[in-house]
Structure prediction request, 738 residues.
Amino acid sequence: MTATAQAPAPVREAIVANGVARSFGSVRAVQDATLTVPAGSVTALIGPNGCGKTTLMLMLSGLLRPDTGTITVAGHNPSTDAAAVRAAIGWMPDQLGSWDNLTCLQTLTLMGEAYRIPRATARERGLDLLERVHLIEFANRPARVLSRGQKQRLSLARALVHDPQVLLLDEPANGLDPRSRIELRTLVREFAAEGRAVLVSSHVLAELDEMVDDAIFMSQGRTLGDDAAAMVADAKTRYLVHALDPAALQAALTGADVPFEAAGEGVIMRFVDEQRAAEALTWLVQQGVRIHRFGPAGSALEQTYMAMNEERR
Amino acid sequence: MTTPTTTHTPPPPEASASAPTAVTPPPQSGNPWRPTFHGVSLMTRIELRRRRPTTKGYVFYGILFGLVIAICVAAAVFAPAQLSSTNFEIVLIMVLGVGMLIAPSLSATSINGDSSEGVLAPLQMSHLTAGDIAVGKLLASWTVSVIALVAVSPFLIYTFVSSGWTVLEMLTTVGAILLVVMAFTAVGLAWSSIAARAVASVALAHLTTGFFLIGTLIVFGVAGLLVTEESSQRDHYIDWNALSPEAESALDNAYMTGDYTNLNIDDYSCLESEWAYTVTHTERVSWIVLMNPAVMIIETAPIVDPETWEEDGRAAPGAFAMLHSALSEARMGPDNDINQYQAYDECAELATMIDNNVASDEDLEAQWEAQNSAWEQRQQELANLERAPWIGLGVSGALLVGSMWIVIRRLRVPYKTLRTGTRVA
Prediction:
């Protein structure tokens, strides 16, 4: 705690959790969660339904007290300095809640005032945020007329009213249309560029692939540390190659003694980096194999998620 | 244990690039829970705005208000022009009853309802403290109940004019009603912070109200049995079945003429009848009934002297005055001791009359007079017994403070425990 007093600059490690556990009665929702989210980066929290993601996020946000383990958010400890932790966090809950009778702008203004921002400033900020999440035309409409995806965006704007250093987004892509998803992706990258630490939980793994710098997998209340990271790294080396004549492709590879696995019509090859991939493609073309598709073998996160199958009932 | 907050980082300049309005919320530290003026007024504002009635609601209130005024006008036209406090008292009780029905209904879904709607946790995440949220919700629900009561205010004012109460007395009683309404608003909030589902908390809030309004009366009645003393008494009667026909006709004759001198006491055998004589010491359990909020309201009403009300410029003793006397009777307890009972002895009476000691009319009159004035004195004493709203006020105060304590404790985050069967948010 004293260390942070000397360091007014943005804290490097925005979220640090170590061995965090929490039970509800006999249900052990989170058994052992360890994670680090650096400032200025986006980290995904991935896991099947009911693996403890939301419970972990609640503990990080300072709403729920962990049974054991330590948490530090923006240099504060939620068990001794919960108000400072809450003040540093913008939290977008998985449950959509809005004040139905109030307009979007009123909602954001009142929320800003709840953070002790002067009303006029809070209103200005509210307008900016509505602009940012593309709800400006709903500024003076009551929140009850919003669709699910629009409510989701209002909820995101609400998490930003106090300009938090840390953002916890619980299933932000739920119910968003494709266009909004892409916009969300851009927004989240912007948040990280602004120096915020972002922790995102989602099921839409393909979405996360292009959004996150790092991923934390959770299963049965535990974070899977290095194993999962290794699996992601491994998945990123896999390329799927399709040729017009699959037999010719396989023959060329077998002839040159290149390891590969057949995958349907195409083959899966591994390259340690992009450089090697480019060289391999050139070589294949030179061999006269007519390649029509050459790219990463699906989402790395999705492959890891599917590989990590232990949770299936 | 917390270090002074030097940890707040100034907003990085690039933050304004995408959202031009830079905001600098003040730093927070520790985990404050006390209500603050800013927080409570903001929370009240949020709640009132959320509950603002729709156009239909305004129309409904308008029609209600119009009806009340129409009834008042009709009453003013047809009612006799003499002072009468009972109408006013009925309105007061009505106001209390409506308030105690509305207030817990409004507040009893306020916390668990918000929680299941997902709008509570975002507020808990903000700089609002648990105290801000709790007191803000209390004031908002209470204000809505009070506004609903304003609809009956024309009744109240109209009946007050002919009630013989002073303005100060009226304000005292209305103030007590508003306190009771606030206390039961707090009870509703407390239940909504404890129970997971709105149905349960509304039912529990109304049960609590019912317990204090009706339950206290039942408990008082049952407790009365525990403080009832019993002693067996023996009365003596002439045994008519054993009389000889001569003796019987002689006695009948004596009753008719009032001349007992010819009777012989030995002709009349005596019967003994034994029965249980009971005295209930209500003064030992009257505190139970004084806890009742309606009783408390009655006890804040001015005392009306049954002798001098006219000179005092008051209306004749009305409903509250009668109830005050009844309550005073319970508080003072029985005026006769268990051992004071004088057994009735018809045989002994007959013997004295045979000795020609028949009471004269004057004597009877004087005896009756004495009894009557004792009764009147007792009534006077009961009517003028000092008012006792203190226990009821104490109960309301304790409910208010206790409930708010529960609510604030339940709203503090980080949660240690959750309402069973709920999620945060």
